[in-house]
Design brief:
By secondary structure, the protein is an alpha/beta fold. It is built from 15 helices and 10 strands. The strands form 3 sheets. The chain has a 6-stranded mixed beta sheet, with helices on both faces. A two-stranded antiparallel ribbon has the order 3-4. A two-stranded parallel ribbon has the order 7-8. The N terminus is likely disordered.
Length: 323
């Protein structure tokens, strides 16, 4: 059965980088496919490309066949750069030159998961807001301090799009479908995806603090939020307690009761996790990683890191480079 063809068919070009996130890619493509199905019109079409036109493996190892290598696009096209693990190894000058040329011609660009890093590296996000998976947010900010990085699930800024990865790719594409053809069609697509809570660009990526820690205590959540917002310049326990309207002893008891650790230990774990993300995802020196994580002394940082992760930060960096 032939389906009616829309007057204007919008084409998406998915640039698949090595180790791309399969869940983000498939969520995006399925939203387009279902928009065609539910409308009974060919509203969208898509092509898959890689740098050389050969198949590419996603982060889970599955290989995807593509339609072609890099090619000149139509000005009305939208490129979605699909990133994933080890994004820095997937970005090269040839890819960036191609993206810059197409962007100058008016082609819209989006980044799924760590595809946002590619857009930033290619200079396609100057003066724009963007988002990226929360695990990569700190490293993106460190490398591109002038870039406005949101913590939202997706961002639409003129003809630049970004989604944090995973289910957020569906949220972004549903938003684009709604913009192109109205919310009724977008809602019909969401129903088909069994996606009953499609999010907006104002929704945060991460679960709420009470959900993450499994405890609903407003003062405890407030203190943890202060900690997470002040990792580079840690706040002392007495000051945290004062801002939460309690004594230092009460703060200690609160953390011991609900999290089975002291506020100092919990804060240290947050800072060390940030440090590990920076070591794994940036080229920052170990000393600069220590400073960005609130450690004034490299030796103290190394000691704490080894005690927590059972490996020194220097060996961690070396293991990442060898992998």
């Amino acid at each position: 059965m032939n389906t009616p063809r829309a007057k204007t068919v919008k084409r998406f070009v998915f640039l698949l980088l090595p180790n791309f996130s399969l869940i983000a890619f498939s969520n995006a493509v399925e939203a387009l496919r279902l928009a065609n199905r539910m409308s009974r019109k060919e509203l969208y079409e898509w092509r898959l490309v890689t740098e050389d036109g050969t198949s590419v493996a996603c982060s889970s190892g599955l290989k995807i066949e593509v339609d072609s290598a890099l090619e000149e696009l139509r000005r009305e096209d939208t490129v979605m750069v699909c990133g994933g693990a080890r994004i820095k190894l997937a970005v090269n000058q040839k890819l960036m030159n191609w993206a810059r040329r197409e962007a100058r011609r008016g082609v819209a660009f989006g980044g799924l998961c760590t595809g946002t890093y590619f857009l930033a590296k290619a200079g396609l996000l100057q003066g724009r807001q963007a988002t990226i998976h929360w695990e990569n947010r700190e490293s993106l900010i460190e490398e591109f301090p002038d870039l406005e990085v949101s913590s939202a699930v997706f961002v639409v800024d003129q003809n630049r799009y970004s989604a944090a990865g995973g289910a957020a790719a569906a949220d972004l594409l549903l938003k684009l479908v709604s913009t192109d053809h109205g919310p009724d069609l977008a809602n019909a697509v969401a129903d088909q995806m069994i996606y009953t809570t499609a999010r907006t660009g104002k929704d945060e990526q991460r679960l709420s603090i009470p959900t993450r820690i499994g405890v609903r205590h407003p003062k405890l959540s407030g203190v943890i939020k202060m900690m997470e917002s002040n990792l580079e310049e840690p706040i002392s326990p007495p000051e945290l307690a004062a801002q939460a309207g309690m004594s230092t002893r009460q703060l200690e008891r609160l953390f011991r009761r609900y999290l089975n650790r002291s506020p100092k230990r919990y804060y240290m774990e947050l800072r060390l996790q940030k440090a590990r993300n920076l070591l794994m995802q940036t080229d920052m020196s170990v000393i600069n990683v220590a400073l960005a994580s609130g450690f004034a002394s490299p030796s103290h940082f190394s000691k704490c890191y080894r005690a927590h992760f059972n490996i020194t930060p220097y060996r961690e960096r070396g293991a990442q480079e060898d992998s």
